[in-house]
From TrEMBL:
<feature type="region of interest" description="Disordered">
    <location>
        <begin position="258"/>
        <end position="289"/>
    </location>
</feature>
<feature type="compositionally biased region" description="Polar residues">
    <location>
        <begin position="278"/>
        <end position="289"/>
    </location>
</feature>
<keyword id="KW-0378">Hydrolase</keyword>
<protein>
    <recommendedName>
        <fullName>DNA-3-methyladenine glycosylase</fullName>
        <ecNumber>3.2.2.21</ecNumber>
    </recommendedName>
</protein>
<feature type="region of interest" description="Disordered">
    <location>
        <begin position="1"/>
        <end position="23"/>
    </location>
</feature>
<comment type="similarity">
    <text>Belongs to the DNA glycosylase MPG family.</text>
</comment>
<dbReference type="InterPro" id="IPR011034">
    <property type="entry name" value="Formyl_transferase-like_C_sf"/>
</dbReference>
<dbReference type="GO" id="GO:0003905">
    <property type="term" value="F:alkylbase DNA N-glycosylase activity"/>
</dbReference>
<comment type="function">
    <text>Hydrolysis of the deoxyribose N-glycosidic bond to excise 3-methyladenine, and 7-methylguanine from the damaged DNA polymer formed by alkylation lesions.</text>
</comment>
<keyword id="KW-0234">DNA repair</keyword>
<dbReference type="GO" id="GO:0003677">
    <property type="term" value="F:DNA binding"/>
</dbReference>
<comment type="subunit">
    <text>Binds MBD1. Binds SSBP1.</text>
</comment>
<dbReference type="InterPro" id="IPR003180">
    <property type="entry name" value="MPG"/>
</dbReference>
<dbReference type="Pfam" id="PF02245">
    <property type="entry name" value="Pur_DNA_glyco"/>
</dbReference>
<dbReference type="GO" id="GO:0006284">
    <property type="term" value="P:base-excision repair"/>
</dbReference>
<keyword id="KW-0227">DNA damage</keyword>
<dbReference type="InterPro" id="IPR036995">
    <property type="entry name" value="MPG_sf"/>
</dbReference>
Length: 289
């Protein structure tokens, strides 16, 4: 009798015990990340610490183009997702005498206004009527740096979706190294729209530049100086070695073997431009908007 009573009590108590255990387990169990949960970076808590301010951009065009290498471009999407890519390739456009520049001869238009604004101003312009390119103004009248290629660091699935939206249906999946290996590709992958033109990269809440605490700055011997791409019609200016990229990096858009040989052997041509050889008068040539 006592045995049957204990058994009944145990059976009656079991559901309540299981229910309690389930509740306790649910409290202890970590929530499963949904597909719609914004991807956060290990940088997120230290964004202000690593973000580069206006002083970084306040340097001559060629110096800035080289300084960009190894830095991280960040794009925060509307849902809070952050996309990140390390800059591995840039081009300098010095304005003034540089006939390949949109601001050659000091020409100002509605389109290139950002090139004459303060250093760190974003210049976004269309090519072929459908693609976009992102530049950043530097010191020097009408000077800016074109961002050519990134190494994807965070948010690759989102980048892949953004790139796929502009590709033919049924096209093969892109490898990570193909997501941002070109100026228009990186604008697609990071969803850089035309309306970002004239924004301040030093203070904008949706796009900014960070230093990478886990990576050392690119060393001079690691930087290849090569002629810029797609400006063959500009004569001697097409030969200026004002494209810079990290030697051996798989995300570089176009490799120049001759330029690499010269860089490694110390035979690289002088890549200084007018804004880089001006004497230091103690006053910086800061463009005003």
């Amino acid at each position: 009798m006592a045995g049957r009573k204990r058994k009944k009590l145990a059976l009656a108590a079991a559901p309540e015990h299981d229910k309690q255990t389930g509740l306790k387990a649910a409290k202890l169990k970590e929530p499963i990340q949904s597909k719609n949960t914004p991807e956060r970076s290990h940088y997120f808590m230290n964004t202000l610490q690593h973000r580069l301010g206006k002083d970084f951009f306040n340097q001559p065009c060629i110096s800035l183009a080289k300084a960009f290498l190894g830095k991280v471009l960040v794009r925060r999407c509307e849902d809070g997702t952050e996309l990140r890519g390390r800059i591995v390739e840039t081009e300098s456009y010095l304005g003034g005498e540089d006939k390949a520049s949109h601001s050659a001869g000091g020409k100002r238009t509605e389109r290139n206004t950002a090139m004459f604004m303060k250093p760190g101003t974003i210049y976004v312009y269309p090519i072929y009527g459908i693609y976009l390119c992102m530049n950043v103004s530097s010191e020097g009248e009408g000077a800016a740096v074109l961002l050519r290629s990134l190494e994807p660091l965070q948010g690759q699935p989102v980048m892949r979706q953004l790139r796929a939206a502009r590709r033919k249906e049924g096209a093969r999946p892109l490898k990570d190294k193909e997501l941002c290996n070109g100026p228009s590709k990186l604008c697609q992958a990071l969803n850089i729209p035309r309306c970002f033109d004239r924004r301040d990269l030093a203070s904008d809440p949706e796009v900014w530049l960070e230093g990478d605490p886990d990576t050392s700055p690119a060393k001079p011997l690691d930087i290849v100086s090569a002629p810029r791409i797609g400006i063959e019609s500009h004569g001697e200016w097409a030969k200026k070695p004002w494209r810079f990229y990290i030697h051996g990096h798989p995300c570089v858009s176009v490799v120049n073997k001759e330029a690499e040989r010269q860089s490694l052997s110390g035979e690289a041509m002088d890549d200084l431009g007018p804004s880089d050889v001006q004497p230091d008068t103690g006053q910086h040539n800061v463009k005003r908007s």
